[in-house]
Amino acid sequence: MRPPELDPIDVALLTNRLKTTPFAQGEIQYLPTTGSTNDVARDLAEKGAPEGTIVIAESQTKGRGRLDRTWHSPPGAGLYFSIVLRPQLDPSDLPKITLLAGIAVAESIEETTGLHPLIKWPNDLLLEGKKVAGILTELYGDITSPYVILGIGINVHTRREEFLPELQKIATSLAMAGGQNISRANLMQAMLTHLGRWYEIFKKGVFQPILDAWRKRCVIIGARVKILSGEKELEGTIVDVDVGGALLLRDQSGQIQRILSGEVIRWKK
């Protein structure tokens, strides 16, 4: 396991970049280790932290993804952070933030490494069919003052043997996929730029450009899939994603099912 100082996160540099984004009112908190950056960011948001407040950790002991799954977060091996967002949005619009974040992560990886990640709905970034990054969006507050905690984890330097045994066949890292001269600070700077650009579009109430960009990277459009949605298992072909960020599946009877949340447990082009 490499020590964090081999690829340092320059908080001062990132703070300067933050000032040029829509998140300029926030500040960056850097933690050597924490339970979950999402939990720390939520606590700060509850105390009034402004939009753009970011929590970055070198490692997490209780990092999590969707469905309360563990996000493996070894020290110095990845980029683990959460950001406070305070958009005016209906709860049904939350999937849109996940989609725009997926584009921003993909573009940031592409810009800094030359790799070309694809997106598996709703929140996984893939390289060569294996998961390299994940997104967790959580909505809190009330209808008059909602806030979103956007958590992102990217496997940067992680080696195969550092993944838990059950993850070694399905997970990868930027280094394992052949990324060269990877700098977590550069990757985070790119994230702030791309995330800020797409978030500004979202706040203007415009979703079509986000949808178009996301479709181009979606690995399951046109694929035969099996999806677990609540207590239902659905099978069929993914035909599109709609303007609400929902997946559209043509089931075996030819009917279109609209799926706002779920887990793709199998897919094949």
What does this structure look like?
The protein contains five helices and twelve strands. By secondary structure, the protein is of the alpha+beta class. It has two domains: 4-216, Bira Bifunctional Protein, Domain 2 (BirA Bifunctional Protein, domain 2, 2-Layer Sandwich), CATH 3.30.930.10; 221-268, Roll (SH3 type barrels). A seven-stranded mixed β-sheet has the order 1-2-3-7-6-5-4, sandwiched between helices. The protein has a five-stranded antiparallel β-sheet with strand order 11-10-9-8-12, with no helix packed on it. Helix 1 (11-18) packs parallel to helix 4 (184-203), helix 3 (94-113) packs antiparallel against helix 4 and helix 3 packs across helix 5. The N and C termini lie far apart (36 Å). The mean pLDDT is 90.
The amount of helix comes to: 25-40%
Task: Work out the strand percent.
Answer: 25-35%
Mean pLDDT: 90
Tally the beta strands. 12
Distance between the termini: 36 Å
| Contiguous uncertain segments of 5+ residues | none
The appropriate CATH architecture of the largest domain is 2-Layer Sandwich
Strand order in the sheet with the most strands: 1-2-3-7-6-5-4
- The rough form would be described as globular
CATH superfamily of the largest domain: Bira Bifunctional Protein, Domain 2
* SSE string: HEHEEHEEEEHHEEEEE
CATH topology-level name of the largest domain: BirA Bifunctional Protein, domain 2
Tell me, what is the CATH class of the largest domain?
A: Alpha Beta
Annotation field: number of helices:
5
State the major sheet: 7 strands, mixed
